[in-house]
Amino acid sequence: MEQAVTRKKSAGTPRLRFPIKSPIAFCRGCLHPLVGRIIAENIEELGIEGDTVLVGGVGCHAVIVGHLNLDVLLPGAAHGRAPDVATGIKRILGKRKTLITIQGDGDAMAIGTEPLIQAAARGERITVIMINNQVYGTTGGQLAPTTIIGHPTTTSIGGRKSEEGYPVRTAELLAKLNGVVYSARGALNNVRNLQRTKKYVKAAIAKQMDDLGFSFVEILGNCPVNWRMTPINSVKYIEEKLIPEFPLGEFKNLK
User: Fold this and answer.
1) Pair 32, 91: CB distance under 8 Å
2) Global confidence as pTM
3) How far, in Å, CA of 47 to CA of 38, rounded?
4) Is the terminal CB of the chain with fewer CB neighbours within 10 Å at N or C?
5) Is the dihedral of CA 37, 42, 47, 53 positive or negative?
């Protein structure tokens, strides 16, 4: 397990650079790179650059892992299995390593529901960052577990209907589990929410560093291409449609 973690050597300061020697491999207007920036800044501020391991899932979000100058698991875990892989690494390396998974809503709450829920229920000392952008961005914009009612996707052309299910509020769901010590939801639609989200991610990582239990942060992002919107309109959509459905804030914060 330890041999699967590869180390990228930094060419100088700062030790974390985003991106690293490569263009950002995201669609125009995608907010995913901001998640990478938030994680990188928090890791630097906490002084754990050399003690952090990132595990990516399968999806657009996994590109973030490849752009951060940290110990990473590349390629990422099998689809949905990032919490399982992070659990294995954490149990082998122990408290001296901080394990962070970066996942999408489909990766974490569809095929990855069992690994996520069970890791949370066990109180594994890992931190899961889940980006909620309403769709399966990598595979064509299909209906996801978080898709809100009325939102059109390639598998719900006229908009999601109630008979196709309801969006899962993951942060609230996980907050109900005893093994979870921190659960929050942030957004990336404006500077104020970006700064709040950064604080949530730092708090989640700090809980792990204090060896208290499982920590989780859901982040509302966008997908302009699959939403069939301009980048600006996609950001407005987060404000007008997603935040009313997925309230922002901390849902659990145990000391």
Assistant:
1) no
2) 0.89
3) 14
4) C
5) negative
